[in-house]
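During the reporting period the student researcher (J.K.) took over the structure-prediction task from the postdoctoral fellow and processed the backlog of single-chain submissions. One of the processed entries is reproduced below for the supervisory committee.
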Amino acid sequence: RLLINSADLPLDNVELGASIAINGVCLTAVEFVEKGFWVDVSIETLTHTTLGDLQEGSAVNLEKSLTPSSFLGGHLVSGHVDGVGEIVERYEDGRSWRFAIRSPEPFAKYIAQKGSICVDGTSLTVNAVSGAVFELNIIPHTFDETLFGDYQVGSRVNLEVDVIARYLERMSAYQSE
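J.K. obtained the following structure tokens:
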């Protein structure tokens, strides 16, 4: 079980059993307390995400579930993390920051230049791809409001690839069966 301090995320319209993404990982709120909520985390989730790396007081990205009336400002993400990537480069570029992230090999085929990727719950556009490494340009607002300001070379991050690419691969494989 994890206790999440959510002082910066109003929970007045969140019901028990609702999904809340923590660093991009979709989890269920099982109990509310004064300053946050509890979630149950399976061994499977701890093994395939960075949640097992969290220490007491770690900063996390939090996001409530999208509702049918919500504004969609990025691509569709489910909170079903595909794997863990590693920051391999970080540098300032004018007012922005550039990051290079190495994805696990099995998921590299789903990451395309100008395509979408979700990093710790943040929906982003891929700037360039070389093998299993992809590059991102992070604007100041995203750098300041997400965990990108905390990331260093070697930081581990949760990755969710674009689900459309996964469905296209499955449909193609199914047609050739």
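The committee noted the following: The mean pLDDT is 90.
J.K. will present the remaining backlog at the next meeting.
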